[in-house]
Amino acid sequence: MIRVIVAAALLAQFGMPGQAHAQGDDYVRVSAGTLVSVLAGDADRGPVPVTAFDMRILPVSQDAFRAFVIAHPQWQRGQAVRAFVDGGYLKDWATPEHPMEGAASARPVVNVSWFAAQAYCEAEGARLPTWQEWEYVAAADASRHDARADPAWRARILNWYARPVGGGPGDVGGEANFYGVRDMHGLIWEWVDDFNALLVSPDSRSADDPDKLQFCGAGAINLQQRDNYAVLMRIALLSSPGRRRQHQ
Length: 248
What we know:
The protein is α+β, with helices and mostly antiparallel strands. The protein is built from seven helices and seven strands; from the N terminus they run βββαββαββααααα.
């Protein structure tokens, strides 16, 4: 099965373009460059310039998010405004302030809404990355800033995604990529700031057939590199009805 740990996993990699972060040891500078998007609409406009920014090295752990909700009780389960979270918010925690007993504190936090993720980022003086910023960093392997043309690298990512969920995600701290960022693939699905810009509208005013792009397979026509299926999977998850319900 496709390895979707939780439909509402926290996107815990974020940064501030052109600005150093107070918790410097937790962040790494990502150099400026350009992203050649595999999305047809982006690619038609040419390479996208990406400004240098600082990105969190690791996804946010359960311990780190526990410290956040204790300091900001308005984001505890049962206290958070229902317009900003759904019934699955932190559902795997034993109490509003504590993850399940015995859960590894170094595991990434999951079951977190976009609004809670954004609030956590703001508490660190940061923000969620844009889709293009995330994909820019995610394109790197351990030695290349852009490994997307390597079929073996793409296959490795798909193999990660295809593993059974099992007992949930492992600990944060996987292999560092070219920029020094870890766990961009193979651990959790992550939020981006502008995720709703990836939604395909069913409005008949914006398409001849309002249903033609509502399905994962049909969405492949929007990819310039149709064999880069991992990107399509990320778009499909961010655009899924379950994700939309988080924000209604």
